[in-house]
């Protein structure tokens, strides 16, 4: 007996990549223009040119939608290649972080999301788990490579080192609202190498 090929059930959701991409762009635009609190599923659907059902087939809530879109963009940007030395790894990581902080939309989205996460513990945990933790995992991998190469002490405090790497640029761009002049990232790299007791 020949088994007939199975057919998708009538009405089964087919998640078309083109629609998912359009929705992701709409999420980024709406977040940048209106912020997390004022963002609505209706506005996203209208901007993306789809029905709300297209959103709910992908994500059960506004928070899930926002976190999914931002984590895909944010984590992918942080994944830099192994360059062979801590100095060049660190420079590449700082450049990627700078690109993330100064991205035309993320430069507005990040401060707003950070502020909202301070008021919303559930959102804060989602941001930590899906954006912060994966980005820190990539940084941890970079530091472990440096330890294995003998460039950092074996007892390097990884968690403190990760904070140290990320904090100066966040403070400069998002707290002081200062610019990063040419050569800033190279100078920051040298300061961080000394602070980390790099060999």
Number of E strands: 0
Residue runs with pLDDT of under 50 for 5 or more positions: 1-13
Order of helices and strands: HHHHHHHHH
- Please give the count of helices: 9
> Beta fraction of the residues?
under 5%
The largest β sheet comes out as: none
Mean pLDDT: 90
List the helices and strands and how they pair.
Elements: H1 17-38, H2 41-48, H3 52-56, H4 62-78, H5 86-102, H6 106-119, H7 121-148, H8 158-175, H9 184-195
Helix pairs in contact: 1-2, 1-4, 1-6, 4-7, 5-7, 5-8, 5-9, 6-7, 7-8
Keywords for this structure?
199 residues, 9 helices, mainly alpha, disordered N terminus
Word description of this protein:
With 199 residues, the chain is an all-alpha fold. The protein has nine helices and no strands. It is elongated and about 55 Å long.
Question: Quick summary of this structure?
Answer:
By secondary structure, this protein is mainly alpha-helical. Helix content is 71%, strand content 0%.
